[in-house]
Design brief:
This protein has 487 residues and is α+β, with helices and mostly antiparallel strands. The protein has 2 domains: 107 residues, no CATH class; 264 residues, no CATH class. It has 21 helices and 10 strands. The strands form 3 sheets. Strands 1, 2, 3, 6, 7 and 10 form a 6-stranded mixed sheet that branches. Strands 4-5 form a two-stranded antiparallel ribbon. Strand 2 and strand 3 form a beta hairpin. Helix 6 packs across helix 9 and helix 8 packs across helix 9. Its cofactor is a divalent metal cation. This is Protein ANTAGONIST OF LIKE HETEROCHROMATIN PROTEIN 1-like. It is found in: Nucleus. Keywords: Hydrolase, Metal-binding, Nuclease, Nucleus.
Length: 487
């Protein structure tokens, strides 16, 4: 082979090798879309700057706070979220990070929707918002704190007595389900009684609609009744580690009572936790106690209503893992207390129920016309200690005495108690219809549906019980016929 042939062969081999290299070479991806590079031109920064100058009301509505409060919050959080400049590109500023996070919490928009408002990529927003929420919780942690001595607890009790006429009350407790996207591989771990997936927000509120205890993250494997029992607060309460004052005399009375929390039927009756009497066959005295307790417990309902209506992310399905969703919820509660204590009027205006103590009429808060947070499931039939029942009975006696009564409480009981409702007289045909209905109810429940269709049998059994309750209780059948059905 001549030198010319060797040269030609080498050229051919080189061309083939270069061709293979060209095939293997991938198209280079851009690190940022062109329109995102023009963040200063397309983001909401200009809008916020204009609102700050020309429309303070719209500015408050956009961020749930005024410009001064935003500036103060930004200075608190700046050292934790500000990034360093590099030679490659400028970082997203601390102001843009806080603006994006507040808009996410306020609007409840997804990261994809928020991308077009902020000119920040959705993946980057996911990191920024979680980091900023962690920073908010850290800098505002002093705004949510459990009292650490007896005097602080007594100050809360004095506020409840002054504003809501419930002495020895140290807080109103309640819990809500926060809906989340089903986490992969968790099965029914976060499944709740409304056939959705959620984590539980448990909170205690003082007389000024401020959270003093927040616990987030419990799942549905813990029943609604057990959520409170599994909180650190309850464990410390049972162990008497919360420095709650010792029992003391009620105002102008010789009755010695402990300091208590107030809750609804989702909670157990305890020495330091009061709940209403069962609504079945209420006496007048019990109905008045329920009204007085409801008046104090209304504070926590309003606090949750203000929280969810101002931070609408809580009303939507949070598409994050439970740990990150818990951070989102905690950040909202800390911001709630921060804005409440800063007395930002636009934040809480219209968020309270207003009661006319003369006529007993109630003007509902603005959030009640909107979607509400999912409450805890109310359960009954729990074992209760004798001492807890005695404490509730003592409060009931006090509220019906001259020393503890308020002038409007009798007018505020809208319906007469069950033991004072008049019996209704029925015709012969109506009585026969009720007889045949109850007989059919008893006959159908004896059918062997539970063997082939167990779920259908359980549902039908519940409907039958509901019908029987309506027939016997709501129609107020004479006692002799009621005993006949029960026997």
């Amino acid at each position: 082979m001549s030198d010319t042939d060797d040269t030609c062969a080498a050229v051919v081999i080189a061309c083939l090798t270069e061709k293979k290299k060209v095939k293997r070479k991938r198209k280079q991806r851009v690190w940022m879309k062109e329109w995102l590079k023009k963040r200063d031109q397309f983001s909401h920064d200009r809008l916020v700057a204009e609102l700050k100058i020309s429309s303070a009301v719209d500015y408050k509505n956009y961020l749930r706070m005024d410009a001064d409060t935003f500036g103060e919050l930004l200075e608190k959080i700046r050292p934790l979220i500000e990034k360093q400049c590099t030679y490659m590109r400028d970082p997203i500023t601390a102001e843009q990070r806080l603006l994006s996070t507040l808009r996410y919490l306020v609007s409840g928009d997804s990261f994809e929707e928020l991308k077009f408002q902020t000119a920040i990529a959705a993946q980057t927003l996911g990191k920024i918002i979680v980091e900023t929420c962690e920073a908010l919780i850290h800098v505002l942690k002093g705004y949510i704190k459990i009292p650490t001595n007896e005097n602080d607890w007594k100050d809360i009790a004095k506020e409840f007595e002054k504003r809501w006429n419930f002495p020895h009350c140290i807080g109103a407790i309640d819990g809500k389900h926060i809906t989340i996207r089903k986490p992969p591989g968790t099965g029914s771990y976060y499944f709740n009684y409304k056939q959705s997936f959620s984590i539980v927000l448990m909170a205690i509120v003082n007389a000024n609609y401020e959270f003093i205890m927040v616990d987030v993250g419990a799942n549905r494997r813990i029943s609604d009744a057990g959520v409170f029992s599994n909180t650190q607060f309850c464990k410390r309460l049972v162990k008497n580690e919360l420095y709650i004052p010792q029992p003391d005399n009620l105002p102008n009375s010789a009755i010695k009572q402990p300091y208590v929390l107030v809750g609804d039927d989702a909670f157990p009756l305890m020495d330091n936790l009061m709940k209403p009497f069962s609504r079945k066959k209420l006496t007048t005295e019990q109905a008045i106690f329920n009204y007085r307790l409801s008046r104090a417990r209304r504070i926590v309902e309003n606090a949750f209503g203000i929280l969810s209506s101002r931070f609408r992310i809580l009303l939507k399905e949070i598409n994050l893992c439970p740990e990150k969703a818990s951070l989102i919820v905690l950040a909202c509660t800390h911001l709630h207390n921060y804005l409440r204590m800063k007395k930002v009027e636009s934040y809480y205006q219209g968020g309270f129920d207003v009661e006319n103590t003369i006529t007993g009429e109630m003007v509902n808060a603005d959030w009640k016309s909107d979607r509400l947070l999912l409450p805890l499931q109310q359960l009954s039939g729990r074992n209760t200690t004798v001492s807890a029942k005695e404490i509730r009975l003592n409060f009931s006696h006090f509220f019906n005495s001259e020393q503890g009564a308020v002038p409007w409480q009798n007018e505020s009981i809208k319906a007469p108690p069950s033991d004072q409702r008049p019996f209704t007289t029925y015709s012969h045909s109506q009585t026969e219809a009720i007889d045949s209905g109850v007989q059919m109810y008893n006959m159908i429940l004896c059918l062997p549906l539970h063997r082939c269709f167990p779920r259908l049998h359980r549902q039908f059994h519940q409907y039958c019980l509901m019908w029987k309750f309506l027939a016997i209780e709501s129609l107020v059948i004479p006692q002799t016929r009621y005993n006949k059905y029960n026997n």
